[in-house]
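#onboarding

Welcome to the new folks! Below is a worked example of what a typical request in this channel looks like: someone posts a single protein sequence, and someone else replies with the predicted structure as tokens. Don't worry about understanding the tokens yet, we'll cover that in week two.

Example request:
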Amino acid sequence: MLRHLFKWADECLVEEVEDIKSLISGMNKDISEFRLNVDRLEKEIERHLFKWADECLVEEVEDIKSLISGMNKDISEFRLNVDRLEKEIEVMKTASEGK
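Example response:
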């Protein structure tokens, strides 16, 4: 009778071990799929970050171009004022020499 009990216990233990092996195998498969999903998501996030960074850089370049254009306009106006003032100085010199 004791022999049958041990045989039954051994068979139950073997079944439990096989069930656990099956569960572990399934968990390993799930973990592998999870890792693939994480890798895919990381790549997608990286792609979106690079796209966002590129868009931000394009906006910054456009802003800088606009600033440069405004500065060029200011420089042109400044040159015109310098030319006008130089002419006024010449006129004043000529007028003072004639006196």
